[in-house]
Design a protein that fits this description.
Helix content is 51%, strand content 11%. It is α/β, with parallel strands linked by helices.
Length: 283
């Protein structure tokens, strides 16, 4: 028997996928209607978290944050079976994952943080990526079950909380990418370029293909053989800003990047590769 707590977009589709694999799943959600809606697929909904986990050897969570996870687990604890395994898919702090692993072990239960790079459709299709780290004996035991829930299970080794940190790093890139795209679209609007042309550009030219090389360059410590000089990148960035100002469109990310470029140019790095702006952090 499996229990699943948290019937948001991910949790509800995880439950549907588990049921399609002939698993018996008991569910709970703070908004009861989201849990009872899954009874149409074969789940059994309960009004309380402690009731939902009774008889379950594996308890999955997909909740909002550290506070919510702690609150729900405490509410559910009265119904835990001896030796139950808690598998938390919530994006949380690394410190929170470490603390919960330690505290629930002291109470006789196994807690494993397994955050995901998955959208709702991935959860339903059992595709995407699931991250784990910590006690390798525990993870080895859980790997067959977790692998059925995702396209790829990535094991980051025995450091508790590392999976949580890697999830935060990945999400920070997604947030930065989206914010950068927002500025890109603002610039396109200022230049009176239609969205269809922007889409066509990225269909033909995918800058994401250069990400591994860019990361390697940024972390190499050697910026003396530039492919794009910082001073030239800063010049272009000023063109972006001026065009947006002329078109009266807002930019949120590029002005901050320009300011960082200026700091590095003032330190004498204008002729270095522009990735030098990330050198202090990358080292």
């Amino acid at each position: 028997m499996i229990a699943f707590l948290g019937m948001g977009l991910l949790g509800s589709n995880f439950v549907r996928a588990l049921i399609s694999k002939n698993e018996q799943v008991q569910v709970w959600n703070r908004t009861a209607a989201k849990a009872t809606a899954l009874e149409a697929y074969g789940a059994k909904a309960f009004p309380g978290a402690a009731e939902a986990v009774k008889g379950a050897g594996r308890i999955h969570l997909a909740l909002k944050d550290d506070h919510t996870v702690n609150e729900v687990l405490e509410a559910a604890a009265a119904g835990f079976e001896p030796g139950a395994v808690i598998i938390d898919h919530t994006t949380t702090s690394a410190d929170g994952a470490v603390q919960r692993t330690r505290e629930w072990a002291a109470r006789g239960f196994t807690y494993v943080h397994a955050p995901v790079f998955m959208g709702p459709q991935n959860a339903l299709d059992s595709t995407g990526y699931m991250l784990v780290s910590g006690d390798q004996t525990v993870i080895g035991t859980l790997t067959p079950a977790l692998s059925k829930m995702t396209g790829k299970l990535i094991n980051f080794g025995d450091v508790v909380g590392k999976a949580a940190g890697m999830k935060l790093v990945g999400n920070s890139f997604l947030v930065s990418l989206t914010a950068g795209l927002a500025d890109t679209l603002s610039l396109a609007k200022a230049l009176d370029l239609p969205l269809s042309d922007i889409s066509s550009l990225f269909d033909l030219w995918n800058p994401g293909n250069g990400l591994p090389a860019r990361l390697q360059r940024m972390t190499s410590g050697n910026y003396s053989n530039p492919s794009w000089e910082l001073s030239m990148a800063r010049k272009d960035t000023q063109l972006f800003i001026e065009a947006a100002q002329k078109g009266n469109t807002p930019l949120s990310v590029l002005p901050a990047i320009a300011a960082e470029m200026d700091r590095w140019i003032e330190k004498g790095h204008g002729n270095d590769d522009w990735t030098v702006i990330g050198s202090a952090i990358s080292r």
